[in-house]
């Protein structure tokens, strides 16, 4: 789960970077054409907010998965105890 969430977070970060590049291009073009249409500006804001929320949700899920993983690992019996139980001494 940790690996999957880390990959998902990386993918979302990539989408955010790509979207920001598109915004920069759009703004550069719009500056030449008298500015960005208010509807386009609103759509950009909405999409960025959505991507930021996805990123925050994924980060929270990753943190929870890491916490669960560390709890499970801390409760696991030691290798020596496992060897003793399994008769591998």
What does this structure look like?
This protein is mainly alpha-helical. The chain has helices at 2-32, 38-75, 79-86. Helix content is 87%, strand content 0%. It is rod-shaped and about 80 Å long.
Number of helices: 3
Largest sheet: none
Report the strand count.
0
Radius of gyration: 23 Å
Gap from first CA to last CA: 34 Å
Give the CA-based shape.
rod-shaped
Structural class of the secondary elements? mainly alpha
What fraction strand?
under 5%
Uncertain residue segments: none
Mean pLDDT: 79
SSE topology string: HHH
* Helical content class: over 70%
Tags for this model:
single chain; 89 residues; mainly alpha
Short summary of the structure?
With 89 residues, this protein is mostly helical. Helix content is 87%, strand content 0%.
Topology:
Blueprint: H1 2-32, H2 38-75, H3 79-86
Helix pairs in contact: 1-2
């Amino acid at each position: 789960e940790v690996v999957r969430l880390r990959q998902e977070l990386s993918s979302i970060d990539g989408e955010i970077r790509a979207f920001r590049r598109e915004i920069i291009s759009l703004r550069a073009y719009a500056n030449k054409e008298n500015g960005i249409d208010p509807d386009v500006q609103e759509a950009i804001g909405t999409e960025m907010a959505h991507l930021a929320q996805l990123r925050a949700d994924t980060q929270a899920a990753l943190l929870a998965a890491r916490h669960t993983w560390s709890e499970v690992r801390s409760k696991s019996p030691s290798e020596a105890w496992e060897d003793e139980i399994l008769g591998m001494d």
